Amino acid sequence: MHRILIKNGVIIPMDGKSRTIENKALLIEDNRIAAIDSTEILAEKHSIDQTIDAGGKVVMPGIVNCHAHQGWTSLVRGIAEDMTVEDYVFRLTEPLIEHVVTDEDMQCFAYLDCVEMLKFGNTCISEFETFSDDTASAIMESGIRGVLGVNMTDADWDFSDPNALPNYSPDLMKTNLDKAIKFYDTWHGKNNDRISVRFSNNIPLLCSPEFLTETKKLAKERGIGVNTHINTESFEVEAYQQMYQKVGVEFLSDIDYLDENTNLVHLIYTQDREIDIIKETNAYMIHCPYEMGKRGACAPLGKMYAAGLNIALGSDWLMLDPFEQMRYAAVLARIDSGDALLNKAYDFLEMFTIKAAKALDLDDKIGSLEIGKLADIILVDFDQPHIVPMNSHYDPVTNLVYNVHGSDVSMVIIDGEVVVENGKVKTIDEKKAMQEANLRSEAVFNKFKSLDH
Ligand SMILES: [Zn+2]
Q1: For residue 439, is it within any domain?
Q2: Fewer CB within 10 Å, N or C, the chain?
Q3: What separation in Å is there between the alpha carbon of 220 and the centre of ligand 1?
């Protein structure tokens, strides 16, 4: 048995008790948290293989990022930020997917995104993407915990016309379900269970009712959850009305798609009736605050929090620093509600740790520092000019949410394995990942520019 002792840190367990634990050490045995007790007692009772001095640092659960797109972050960073949604979807990503990027390209950018994710303290990511085995391999190799899902659609959609409604194709439905099942069979439980799979429908508008129902049925049979993006664009809301004469969330509820194992990503253009349905069905809202703000839109967050919705946070493809994301979540909630005290720091931190783990049905394993849980732990260096002073007068949770940056994360442990040490990723060659992404992006955008679009 391999034992790691983390001593001298301030432990923030996120175990629902809104507390910090000082003057105690945390013991890891193999891949699990075995004890939190005084350093002397633990050192006396056990033979320790590695001692980590966390003096000046906070010891907390790793960030559980409920929505990301590995590969896309670095590929379109610095290109897509000032675009409208229509330009982003119809003039950038669709032509790239259709005509330019290969599986090898996406694997290369996924390596770089994993490096960034890990350095900023994300220990678990939930993804849905047009997954190839190559991208999944990069995620597995990085050591991060990945909840992966093939991004499915059965729509034969004319991407050159944003106003056209989709036609659905039974052939496409079969092809995509077969692909998702094969992906599940290949990857679910891989890497000592660090990789798991959910089924994912891109957006309900791009999926026929039969397809959505079948996806949910197949997911239930396997005991896994489903994901979909919804109410991300205003044109989507109009389309649900036109096609089903109801709001999108109501449509999903009527076909029994919604329950506590359903993650609804974005929910920007959401109406009161939909908030009630989400609450009734216990579905999860996956809130990507920076992406929302970037679109110049804001969900009715005041009403959503007041209704007590299950809300967890994600980054989407933009800005993988979870601490920055928490600040955006706080700011957007306060702009929408006009209430500066709508949520406190602890609430936002829960949405990226234990509540996020619940959204992924992993809260019995990760999301808090409790005895018996898996050792997904990060150390955050508080000995920084933008965080000090740090003494008994200051609340480390408030500092984490409002003052810490991802670059203050000094160590990342996943499943008991140290994957980031002194801010450096151990599983992937960072320099090589950056060099290769630079070279490939040059080639990708040379090809993209030569397209007639
Ligand atoms: Zn997304």
Answers
A1: no
A2: N
A3: 22
